[in-house]
Amino acid sequence: MDAKRWAAPVLAALLVAVAVGWGAVSRSDDGDPVDEAVRNQAPGRAHPASPDPAPDSPSPSSGAESGGGGGGTAPREPQDVLYLGDSLAMEAQDILGDRLERSDRVDAYTSEPVAGVTVCDYLQGRPGRSLVAAENKAAALVKEREPGVIVLQFWGNTWGYTPCMEGVEWGTPEYYERYAADMRALTGQIADAAREADVPRPRLVWVQQPPDALHPDRIEQVNALYEQQAENSGDLLADGGRELRGDDGRWTQYLPCNDHERRTAGLCTGPGDTAQLHRDDDPLHFCLAPTPEGGRPCPARSPGLERYSRAVADEVADYLRG
After folding, report:
1. Domains of the chain
2. pLDDT tens across 263-312, in order?
3. Contact indicator for 55, 85 with CB cutoff of 8 Å
4. Do residues 229 and 52 lie in contact, with contact meaning Cβ atoms separated by under 8 Å?
């Protein structure tokens, strides 16, 4: 099957059109003190390597290092799951929630995605503006909701999408250094918040992203950072793109329908027994309904979101099974 490809100039214009601009919804600094660890991650500053915070007293049967459940171990107690991320998380949040809430291993599911964000938006103490309100920063939510699992989904947005990445351009060495540093800082803040609240440190699930139509090498490097962070801190990795890649491992608009899609109305609607993953005018999002400014949970049957959410839910389920 010939996958539908996009010319870079056309895609660039489309992504600008579908991107959620931060100017209309950005908020001022959350007012928290700017601690030195976060201040040192501002653009233009060096990012010396530091130990990655590991979970507090992880269970020997956690299975985190192997990315899933271990054989013969007892299932964990039901836990609350929290989902954070950008516009992809916003459009997928209800579908993922439906999957997780069917499990007897999930007590409660909540989500607080914001379109256009990246990792630094969920950090406390970041100087400058952020798209995430103070009460919805990751550390604040850990103290308020005490989740056992936090799913973290970030496409890798930068300046032009979110003000907290001001001055950082796509694909530069500074971009990857800053991204890795922010991931370490967010992991540390979550661990610190759990310690202060006297609750177990949540297990984090970093979601690897599907192929990027415009910058395929960028997404591969970002996904490698997720893999390294999960390994270093004893957390989990979900391959969100496992069912969304073409035969060459890259972006495609259509893929052959799977059995579930053939049996379900509205999912196998592409040409020649294929599932449509992206709209013609939006190569980034998976919702087959238009994505408005600010994003929304997807209101349309969308096989790309079904596939994406299944990959994330499977990883969470494996962990909770023990």
Report:
1. 73-243+299-321 (3.40.50.1110)
2. 999 999 999 999 999 999 999 999 999 988 888 999 999 999 999 999 99
3. no
4. yes
Per-residue pLDDT of 123-166, as tens digits, reads 999 888 999 999 999 999 999 999 999 999 999 999 788 999 99
Query: Hey, what long-range contacts does 214-220 have (CB within 8 A, 24 or more apart)?
Result: 214/6, 214/8, 214/11, 214/12, 214/15, 214/283, 215/170, 215/171, 216/250, 216/251, 217/171, 218/156, 218/170, 218/171, 219/156
CB-facing half-sphere around the CA of 142: CA atoms within 13 A: 29
Pairwise pLDDT comparison (45 vs 109), residue with the higher score? 109
Backbone angles phi, psi at 289, to 5 degrees: -100, 155
Which residue bears the tokens 């599932």?
275
Are the beta carbons of 115 and 166 closer than 8 angstroms? no
Are the C-beta atoms of residues 134 and 121 closer than 8 Å to each other? no
Q: What is the DSSP string of 80-116?
A: EEEEEESHHHHHHHHHHHHHHHTSTTEEEEEE---TT
- State pTM to two decimals: 0.81
CA R_g for the chain: 19
